[in-house]
């Protein structure tokens, strides 16, 4: 039989269900709005000035307009990650020989990566690779433009004489950036991206 107690219970359940419905509706609307507002390319890139290690002269982002560029940030004293990534970058280039693309290695360790050091280092990698260094401020500007994180692995490293230890490592972002001939950011590829997938994306974006 229907009693006042059962009717009250049904009303409470109905009110709870209605409240849950409105809560879920608001959550889904917020979630959808978040998805919509996050669509689009990140604001990466901008003007920069560095030193081309091959010529020893200053170059800017505009120096590479007219062709696609593939940027990688690293340092020559990196024991494993940077060499591995540069080998992968070379594998990508070998698979797209018909794409006019300039690979640029930009140091995040200008204190040690001199012009001579960079030029000696590149001999182990793809012949198209161009090496760029600069002053600490110039490197800071270009890394900021591409939101590249980097820092000494241990700022407190000193040798027995109390001098800075030159064998320090540098923690940094592990990303390749594809830039259009007009200097516009097109895409980025992380360490986990497969070479074949990078090749497919670059091929599609450069046609």
UniProtKB/TrEMBL annotation:
**Gene3D superfamilies (alphabetical):** Glutaredoxin
Tell me one GO molecular function of this protein.
metal ion binding
Residue span, Thioredoxin domain:
17-207
Q: Would the keyword Metal-binding be found if you checked this record's keyword annotation?
A: yes
| InterPro entries linked to this entry | SCO1/SenC, Thioredoxin-like_sf, Thioredoxin_domain
Q: Which terms under GO biological process does the entry name?
A: mitochondrial respiratory chain complex IV assembly
Spell out the Pfam families in the cross-references.
SCO1-SenC
Q: Which domain of life is it from?
A: Eukaryota
Tell me the keywords, alphabetical order: Copper, Disulfide bond, Metal-binding, Signal
Q: Which residues are the signal sequence here?
A: 1-19
The family database entries (PROSITE patterns) matched by this protein are listed as: THIOREDOXIN_2
Q: Which cysteines are joined by disulfide bonds?
A: 78-82
A GO CC annotation given for this chain: mitochondrion
Q: Which residues bind Cu cation?
A: 78, 82, 172
Task: Describe the family membership recorded for this protein in Swiss-Prot or TrEMBL.
Answer: Belongs to the SCO1/2 family.
Q: What is the protein named? A: Thioredoxin domain-containing protein
